[in-house]
Design brief:
Order of helices and strands: EEEEHEEHEEEHHEHEHEHEHEHEHEHE
Shape: globular
Number of strands: 17
Number of helices: 11
Helix content: 25-40%
CATH class of the largest domain: Alpha Beta
Radius of gyration: 21 Å
Length: about 375
């Protein structure tokens, strides 16, 4: 049991000490660091982690594919329970509810300043002076900065949502990253055209692609998922895909996109909405080339600066095509994602996507399991 004491204003002593798994760089194993106390600012939260999940970007950091400053406490997909709140200002959830000790919560991947040009324009996820959970160098005063720890210090300016007790931890742990990003992508698409009765092609059957398939299907869309991995293709059917295709299949073959579109009666062999979650330049080009007149393609899977494609601007102009991108999510999109999962987890097998769980002190084995690629998410329980 965690015992919280307040020896002086702002300081919170934790007994037994909180622990965080510090990653020291490529080729190094994680080391456990004890954190016996934290200083909470007004509106800050100290949250005991219930479950964290290992995102692909965590794997990319440890493998050296993504630059990261070390030492670093990775992890930005998690949920937990509030054990202490900073004094001096009320802490509130996205819906305005006052947060209290004992509340079960999830939160965004970024703490925003709230006062910069981006925040004032409604783009808090692209704050000009953000703090990123699980992505910033471990520093004195904010040692508990990532989800691979027993506790995390959630800073004021973070979007926080209270969640129901009955929703399984493995369903909701990825909501602040993956699920909320899918909501942002669908919001971007539906600003151009509706989902009901529309053919949607999704590139990538990872967690984001599967979540998008279920959400689009629930909204009345006909969903096609394009994915090279046969196991992931079949998994997409259990999340509402009406058809699955292999992006490498020859035109007219059983697993080709054109054949799937014809089987669903898509007008002229085109689709209205394309959602890109794979990060593949070929997938991006295929979606932009195949979208119907007046359609929209949302790019959400590309976070690498070396991905590039050639676009014919005349084709975009003549076909009235919209190409847009999303990155992370806004606070209300996190709330929308939680609201969706609190009902949809009974209908779609979201809980089965976390296929393995390890203890916090076995974190390196979680990365080994994730690298093998057998599961979309690996869970870490303190």
């Amino acid at each position: 049991m965690t015992v919280i004491e307040r020896p002086r204003l702002g300081q919170v002593a934790i007994t037994p000490s909180a622990v965080a798994m510090a990653w020291l760089g490529v080729g190094h194993r994680h080391e456990m660091v004890a954190v016996p106390a934290v200083t909470l600012g007004p509106g800050d939260l100290l949250v005991a982690i219930e479950l964290a999940t290992l995102c692909g970007s965590d794997l990319h950091a440890v493998s050296g594919e993504r630059r990261a400053s070390t030492p670093l406490v990775l992890g930005h997909e998690q949920l937990g329970r509030i054990v202490a709140i900073g004094e001096g200002a009320p802490a509130r959830a996205v819906d305005g509810t006052r947060l209290i000790v004992g509340a079960r919560v999830v939160w965004s991947v970024t703490a925003a300043c709230g006062g910069c040009q981006s925040c004032k324009a409604g783009f808090r996820q692209n704050c000009l002076s953000p703090r990123h959970y699980g992505r910033e160098r471990m520093q004195r005063g904010w040692e508990l900065s990532g989800g691979f720890a027993s506790h995390i210090q959630v800073l004021a300016g973070t979007a926080v949502v209270v969640i129901d007790e009955e929703i399984p931890a493995e369903v909701v742990a990825p909501v602040g990253c993956a699920t909320a990003t899918v909501v942002a992508a669908l919001d971007a698409a539906t600003r151009i055209t509706g989902l009901a009765g529309t053919t949607v092609v999704i590139a990538g059957a990872g967690l984001l692609g599967l979540t998008a398939a279920a959400m689009a299907r629930d909204a009345g869309a006909r969903v096609i998922v394009s994915e090279p991995d046969p196991d992931r293709r079949e998994n997409a059917r259990s999340f509402g895909a009406a058809a699955v295709v292999n992006p490498g299949a020859a035109s007219g073959s059983a697993l080709s996109l054109d054949r799937a579109l014809r089987s669903l009666g898509a007008r002229g062999g085109h689709f209205r909405i394309g959602l890109e979650f794979s990060g593949s330049p070929q997938a991006m080009a295929s979606l932009i080339g195949g979208v119907d007149v007046g359609g929209v393609v949302v790019l959400a899977g590309t976070v690498s600066p070396d991905s590039s494609i050639v676009i014919d601007p005349e084709a975009l102009v003549r076909r009235l095509v919209t190409v847009t991108g999303v990155h992370d999510s806004a606070p209300l999109q996190l709330l929308k994602a939680v609201d969706y999962l609190q009902e949809a987890w009974r209908r779609w097998p979201f809980g089965a996507l976390v296929g393995a769980e390890v203890a916090l002190d076995q974190l390196d084995s979680a990365f080994e399991i994730a690298a093998a690629g057998d599961w979309l998410r690996v869970g870490i329980r303190p």
